[in-house]
Design brief:
Blueprint: E1 6-12, E2 19-21, H1 25-29, H2 42-47, H3 61-74, H4 78-91, H5 93-102, H6 104-111, H7 115-121, H8 123-126, E3 133-136, H9 143-147, E4 157-161, H10 178-191, E5 198-204, H11 210-213, H12 228-245, E6 250-253, H13 258-268, E7 274-276, H14 277-297, E8 306-309, H15 313-330, H16 334-338, E9 341-345, E10 348-349, H17 375-382, E11 386-389, H18 399-406, E12 413-416, H19 428-434, E13 440-443, E14 450-452, E15 455-457, E16 460-461, H20 468-477, H21 485-496, H22 501-505, H23 516-533, H24 545-551, E17 560-566
Parallel strand pairs: 3-5, 4-5, 4-6, 6-7, 8-9, 8-11, 11-12, 12-13, 13-16
Antiparallel strand pairs: 1-2, 1-17, 9-10, 14-15
Helix pairs in contact: 3-5, 4-5, 4-7, 5-10, 10-20, 14-15, 14-21, 17-18, 20-23, 21-23, 23-24
């Protein structure tokens, strides 16, 4: 009697472990990581039982990408383009990342800021297919059990939000899932983290957004946000469960309100592989921009006077990172470095006279100066060389303020960082025109180049995408036990010195984003070297760190299917 023949298909992709493929037919076509669509060969179609389930012509990935771009260009609004790309990601991730990486400058604002903000606002209306995991208040006590529902045993990066402070849009609750999804898309495109090794997460602790609570299409829990110990207990259940399920995974906290962002970072930063991108990632990318501005001006950090408009997590994170850079450059203490920083929040200049209403993270930067009620008053008094906007308040860097600043510094350094573009403190065009083209300008969201007085200016974008993908890649690749400020400083300095002289001539302080793979690999290498120097890496140090990093990076090629037959 003839022995029964059994077959087992496996997927093999460069740099990734071999994964068993248990799906065939239509079920295989619905798996976005395994699906090749019309690119399946005829042999694969026969053996995987999909002959006849896709159009008969076999086409290559290039032809598929051409078709995608044709359809993409037919879309008439940014949100329609977002939905179209999301639907591509849901059905064929390798093709999605090929298209995204080949059109990075055009598509990054679609898959992330600013369009992702609109997508989050409309999340319940445009929802189509599930992606990532949701942990709600009703699930407490079951988080670890729920994590076994995730089909991947290897996760390198988890991006988690509670939806409480989405960009400059405030509390969007579970609608905030668009942020972890978008952020991880940038991790994959920018640093080559494998799609199968990423996990977007929302902690649904409720929402205080009355419009969402009364919205029939809202998909989150219909109650107000947890507060106090209940909130921290829920976050802790998630963190401990994630560490147990995926011990090597890096957890990135994203878009938590200031009152939670700082305590969570302080609680976990020394015992968990984690960081807060709003605090540390933003701080590092802006420090890099400031170092770049100093290269243009041939000045030193310690000689600058910096006024911050906005004293939230991003503002303090930026200040902390610039302080770290100033300390290294000038051999100063943190207290000495902070003497050149002034913070202005919704109540005015942050001073010790306001001790009763200062949150803990503002106290190190509170001054003994006379209280000043307006930003113009502060600019007149301080005579800053650098003006940082992280307020979420649009058009607050007025012509009068910028002109006043230029009275005391020929080339004002203006960082208008609030997201999305509609929240920017001033536009690139305003900054250049009000200073007769002398401003060094950086924004949070992208602005088009500016033609002024016969010269072309390219605004720098303080895009966290320059930093966090490389930091995550480096920390996870060497299996660091924690992420330190030294790693972020190394990342910032690496980025700053990748700007070319020709790029500086256009006024920008960041390298071309199309080089993001090279940038991320360089930053990851710097992070790994720092981890080894600090004794935090668990893997043996490789002979060539850069080659080691590059060998671990994902490229959007279709997998090969391997047939294993046994008699």
């Amino acid at each position: 009697m003839k022995k029964k023949q059994t077959r087992r298909w496996e997927i093999a992709q460069k740099g990734e472990e071999t994964l068993p493929v248990v799906r065939q037919g239509r079920e295989l076509l619905t798996d976005s990581l395994l699906n090749k669509g019309t690119a399946f060969s005829m042999e694969e179609r026969d053996k995987l039982k999909i002959r006849g389930l896709v159009p008969p012509r076999c086409v290559d990935m290039e032809t598929q990408a051409h078709r995608i771009m044709n359809n993409y260009n037919w879309k008439t609004s940014p949100l329609e383009k977002f939905i179209y790309l999301s639907s591509l990601q849901d059905r064929n991730e390798n093709l999605f990342y090929k298209v995204l990486m080949e059109n990075l400058i055009e598509m990054t604002p679609i898959v992330y800021t600013p369009v992702v903000g609109q997508a989050c606002q409309q999340f319940g209306h445009i929802y189509r297919r599930p992606r990532g995991m949701y942990f709600s208040t009703a699930d407490r006590g079951k988080f670890r059990e729920m994590m076994d529902n995730w089909p991947r045993n290897n996760v390198d990066i988890i991006v988690v939000t509670d939806g409480s402070r989405i960009l400059g849009l405030g509390d969007l609750g579970t609608n905030g899932m668009g942020i972890p999804i978008g952020k991880l898309s940038l991790y994959i495109a920018g640093a080559g983290i494998y799609p199968s090794r990423t996990l977007p997460v929302v902690l649904d602790v409720g929402t205080n957004n009355e419009n969402l609570l009364n919205e029939p299409l809202y998909l989150g829990s219909n109650h107000n946000r947890l507060t106090g110990d209940e909130f921290y207990e829920m976050v802790d259940e998630f963190v401990q469960a994630a560490k147990d399920r995926w011990p090597m995974a890096l957890i990135q906290f994203e878009d938590f309100t200031n009152d939670h962002a700082f305590p969570l970072l302080e609680k976990y930063r020394d015992n968990t592989l984690c960081f807060n991108d709003d605090i540390q990632g933003t701080g590092a990318v802006i420090l890099s921009g400031v170092i770049g501005a100093m290269r243009i001006l041939k000045n030193k950090l310690a000689e600058q006077k910096v006024v911050f408009y906005g004293a939230g997590s991003a503002g303090i994170g930026v200040a902390d990172m610039i302080v770290a850079g100033t300390m290294e450059e000038g051999n100063l203490t943190a207290e000495e470095a902070r003497k050149n920083f002034w913070f202005f929040d919704s109540k005015g200049l942050v001073t010790h006279q306001r001790d009763g209403d200062l949150t803990e993270h503002k106290i190190p930067y509170a001054r003994n100066d006379e209280f000043l009620p307006t930003l113009l008053d502060v600019v007149k008094s301080v005579k800053p060389t650098i003006l940082m906007g992280l307020s979420g308040q649009p058009q607050t860097f007025t012509k009068e303020i910028i002109k006043e600043m230029q009275k005391h510094t020929e080339r004002p350094v203006i960082f208008s960082l609030s997201n999305p573009t509609s929240k920017s403190e001033c536009t690139a065009e305003q900054a250049y025109k009000w200073t007769n083209g002398n401003a060094i300008f950086v924004s949070g969201s992208p602005f088009d180049k500016v033609e002024f007085d016969g010269k072309t200016y390219i605004p720098g974008q303080g895009n966290n995408m320059y930093i966090f993908p490389g930091v995550g890649l480096g920390a996870s690749t060497c299996q660091a036990t924690k992420v330190t400020d030294s790693m972020f400083y190394a990342a910032a300095k690496t980025l700053a010195y990748m700007v070319t002289d020709s790029e500086f001539e256009t006024g920008t302080v960041y390298p071309d984003l199309t080089k993001i793979r090279e940038i991320s690999a360089s930053i990851a290498s710097a992070v790994c070297r720092t981890a080894y120097a600090e004794g935090l890496a668990q893997l043996p140090i490789p002979d060539d760190i850069m080659s080691f990093i590059q060998s671990k990076m994902y490229h959007p090629d279709y997998p090969k299917y391997v047939l294993d037959e046994e008699d």
